[in-house]
Prior knowledge:
This is CBS domain-containing protein. Keywords: CBS domain. It comes from Dethiosulfovibrio salsuginis. The chain is an alpha/beta fold. The chain has helices spanning 5-10, 18-28, 48-56, 82-92, 112-115, 155-165, 179-186, 235-245, 309-318, 338-350; strands spanning 11-12, 32-36, 42-47, 75-77, 96-100, 106-111, 125-128, 149-150, 153-154, 170-175, 195-200, 222-226, 229-231, 249-259, 263-267, 273-278, 281-293, 323-327, 332-334. The two termini are 37 Å apart.
Amino acid sequence: MNKDIAIRALCVDSFLALKGALSIIDANASQFVLVVDKDDTLLGVVTDGDIRRAILRGDSLDSPVSSVMNRSPKVTVEGESRGSMIRRMKELDVHFLIKVDENRRVLGIVRFSDLAVPATRTNPVVIMAGGRGRRLGALTDNCPKPMLPLGKKPILEMIIENLVECGFLNFYISVNYLKDSIIDHFGDGDRLGIKIAYLHEEKPLNTAGSLSLIDPLPKEPLLVMNGDIFTDLDFGELIDTHERSGADGTMCLREMSYQVPFGVVDLSDDGSVSSIREKPVITYMANAGMYVLSPEVLSFVPKGEPYAMTTLMDDLISRGKKLVSHTVDGLWIDVGRMEDFERARRSVCDDSRLR
C-alpha cells in the first residue's frame, strides 16, 4: 500500500471512539477521518460535523466511529479527469474526494482547492469545426455539427469549457459551413474568459488543412482536436506527456472492439483449416481525433489545400519524426454518427454534472 504519511494518519478502524477521532482531526487539521478495515479498504468517513451532531443528540464520546460514519463517501478512481472531479465536487457540494483503487483501498485525498485553479497553459488549442456532418442528416441542415446541443449547451461549448478547466486560454477555431452561427455564439471568447481567433476556410480543408492558416507559427506545442469529440480527457496531462516524450507528434487513441457476427476460419499456408473461432471479439486501437503537434510540424501542411490529419501523421512517420500515442481511457464519444450523438445526449441527461 503506497499511502503517503499524511493520509495514513487519517485512517482509523471502525472501533475507534469518537473522542479519539476528534483528537486525530484536531492534530491534523483535517476536518475528517477515514474509516478503513485491516486491508485499508474504505468503509466510510467521519467529519467533525458528524461528531458535533452526535454530541448534540446525546451520544457518548466513547461511542465508536462506526456509529456515525457516512458509509457512502464520495470517491474517485484512477483515470478520472480533473475536469470531471471539479464538476462532481461542485454538484455534490463537497470539498474533497477520496481516491481509491479498484478494491476501494484508500490511495489519497483529492481536494477541491488543489484542482480549482489550474496552471495556465499558454499552448494554443485548434478545434476543427468547419465540417458539415452529413452523417447526421437533417440535424445539420441549418446547424453546423459542433453547435448541436448536448443538454443545454452546444458540443463545441462543452469542449471549450473542459479545456478552460484544464488551464487553456488561447484558441483557434476553424470554420467553414454555417460559420456565422459559431462566430456569433462565441465571439472573441471574452464571455468565457479566453481568446478565440478564427481560421476561415474558403473551401473545405479536411481535418488538417486549416493548420496552414495559422500565422504566426506558435512557439509551443499545440493541441489539435475535432469539434465533435465529447470527452473529459485531462488535456493538461496530455500536453505534459507529449513534452516529456520529446515527440514531434502525439496521437490520442481509443481501444475499441466489436464482435464478428460469424465464425472466423483460420487457414494454413496450404489452404487447410487450422482453427475455427466462433464470433470472436476483435480489439483494436482507433484514432480518437485529438493530437499534440510540435510547431515545426505545421510546416509540413500544404498552404490552403485540403489535407487530412491521418496524412499528416503518415508524413511524420515517413520523415522519420517521432510520433507517440496517448490512450484515452475515460469518457470519449465521437458524435459524428446519429447513434453516437444520441448516446452523448443520453450521457448528459443521465449525468447532471455535464448539463
